[in-house]
Write the structure tokens for this entry.
Amino acid sequence: MSAMKRKQEQVEATLRLAPVVAVVVIDKLADAVPLARALVAGGVRAIEVTLRTPAALDAIRAIGAEVEGAVVGAGTLLAPRDLRAAEEAGARFGVSPGVTPALLDAADDSMLPYLPGVATATEAMQLFERGYTLQKFFPATPAGGPEYLRSLASPLPGIRFCPTGGVSALTARDWLTVPNVLCVGGSWLSVAKLVRAGDWHQVEMLAREAAALRVM
């Protein structure tokens, strides 16, 4: 089995853990572990910590070390250095909003399973040529919504997507009914006001609702 195929299988296993991948922004390291524990308790095990704050890499380390059942990844990978830093921090998968040639080359050389972002059919085809059968669709709602991805299912049958960006608790099920959608990325599970308040019970409840969204 090629390294690319093995890494894509690892990405798929992560995306199949629940209908929603939690997309979180962690400003304070102290919030990382209780937030992750609440998400996992609610049934959402895949947690993408975006590299948008100084606490992000330490948060990934803490979640990986202290939260049983969590599969923690790094989001907002914009350059090769981000991918390397995520891997060194113990991330189990990496996600980017788009792609660059340098980032793709770095991903080829890395052991980190990688989910690159696309917004058009052309970008999806270019990534498919490089072996990426699993891709992030971003920004999902502004880029065309569920019907756009539905229109790609027939001409691009070998690609499945994780739409992220503008997906909400109210619209997630609409996305999950699209045949080439494997799961969605959701930031509504950890809105800033809940994290600031330390309302981990409400985070867990939101995660339970998200985990129950699976469309058969």
Notes: The beta strands are 20-24, 46-50, 71-75, 94-95, 114-115, 117-118, 134-137, 160-163, 184-186. The chain has one domain: 3-211. The chain is about 45% helix and 15% strand. The chain has a mean pLDDT of 97.
